[in-house]
Amino acid sequence: MSPKKAKKKLEGSSNVFSMFDQTQIQEFKEAFTIMDQNRDGFINKEDLRDTFAALGRAAKSEELDAMLSEAPGAINFTVFLTMFGEKLKGADPEETILNAFKIFDPDAKGHIKADYIKTMLMTQADRFNEEECEQMFSAFPPDVSGNLDYKNLCYVITHGEEKDQE
Questions:
Q1: Phi, psi of 21 (to 5 degrees)
Q2: 43 three-class SS
C-alpha cells in the first residue's frame, strides 16, 4: 500500500473520534473497560458473557455470537466506538432508550420490576443515588404489581407527554 493510501486509510478510521465530544469518548471508554473483563484490550465472547452475568442475565451462546458478528473483526476500543457511532447515527432516541431497557426485559413484556431496575440503577455504571431513584419513581410510579412501564417512560422522555392508553 502506498504511503498516501495508508494515510487516507488511517484518517478514515480516526474520523469516529470526531463524531463524539471528549466527555462522550471518556464515557464510551469507561463502558469498554467495564466490558473488557479480562483487560486484554479487546471484547470477546467471554467478556460479553461475564458482562451479562454481572448484570444478572445469562446470555445464550448464539446471542453472543450474533453480537460479535456485527463487528468487522476483533473489537478493540476504536471498533467499539465505531460500532456505537454507526448505531447512534440516525437512531431514533426513543428506540435507543427502549433498547437499553430491553436488556433488562428478555421476555419483552414491556415492563420491568421496579425493585430490579432500582437495584441496577444504584449498582451499575453511572450509579443513581436513593434521591434520584425516588425522583424517577415519583415521576413514573410503578403499577400495583410493582412493574415499571418502560415503554411509556421512554415515550414521555422523548415526546414530553404520555401516550394515550387504549
A1: -85, 170
A2: strand
